[in-house]
Amino acid sequence: MSTEYPNYPSLILDWPADRVLRITMSRGKMNSMDFDLHHDLTGIFTLIDEDRDVNAVILTGAGKVFSAGGDFSLVDRVVNDPDFRATMWKDGVRLVRNMMDCSKPVIAAINGPAAGGGLAAAMMCDITIAGKSAKIVDGHTRLGVAAGDHAAIIWPLLCGMAKSKYYLLTNEPIFGEEAERIGLISMCVDDEKLQEKALEVAIKLANGAPTAIRWTKYALNNWLRQAWPIFDASMALEQLGMTGPDVKEGLAAHLERRAPKFNPDSAL
């Protein structure tokens, strides 16, 4: 291992095969994102890019959950602390940028629910493999903010504008087989085969021609670089929404486990 990785509180690192690094998000039962987990996940891809001993990466979640979104105390802090809101905006931009610019291919093994920052990380992976029980939910508009994080930059490229608008506007969940059918993910497998399949793909990539694979990823990601102004707008609008009344109702509804009651006349 040519690169020394920090001792991350919520990331477990292991090497299941030669030149394959596996990152397992592990933070409580739901692997929900607090700032430290989000920040550590953002920074690790810069280290991976520089690690000459890594040719492929697997990203997954501990237990039966990939990552079930953001910690609601984190959302509350973003809503009420302008300085922290700016910090989270910067970190969100860097997560997408760092994953896009990491030269090594990254495979997501989506085991169970994926939402929030965890979903952003999953969808920014180069190959996405989900178990049949995987549940993908972009919950931004239910929270009361625009779909930032990652969705605007990559969902239309993956599954088209019609499906993107439907799922991002309604927040309807998408399970593994349907996600594969519409092209949102690369493939869906039986839950018990998920980790095995992800490792199989990672080993194949790790044993492939490194420059050919990395340069192909770089070229393909020019579609994302071309769409960067779209991403910038979505992130800015998400943060703008954090200052308004809808997000307060959306957060209260989540905490009280009820449907939100947004004011239909609050829109500009």
Q: Choose one word for the global shape.
A: globular
Instruction: Supply the helix-strand structural class.
Output: alpha/beta
Give a quick account of the main beta sheet: strands, pairing sense, barrel closure: 6 strands, mixed
| Beta strand count | 10
* Integer tally of domains: 1
Helical proportion, percent range: 40-55%
CATH topology, what is it called?
2-enoyl-CoA Hydratase, Chain A, domain 1
CATH architectural designation: Alpha-Beta Complex
Q: How much β-strand is present in the residues? A: 15-25%
CATH uppermost class = Alpha Beta
> Strands of the largest sheet, in order across it?
1-2-3-5-7-10
Query: What is the ordering of alpha helices and beta strands?
Result: EEHEEHHEEHEEHHEHEHHHHH
Task: Report what the structure shows.
The protein contains twelve helices and ten strands. It is of the alpha/beta class and 268 residues long. The protein has a single domain, classed as 2-enoyl-CoA Hydratase, Chain A, domain 1, CATH 3.90.226.10. The strands form two sheets. Strands 1-2-3-5-7-10 form a six-stranded mixed beta sheet, with helices on both faces. A hairpin with a 2-residue loop joins strand 1 and strand 2. The chain is globular and about 55 Å long.
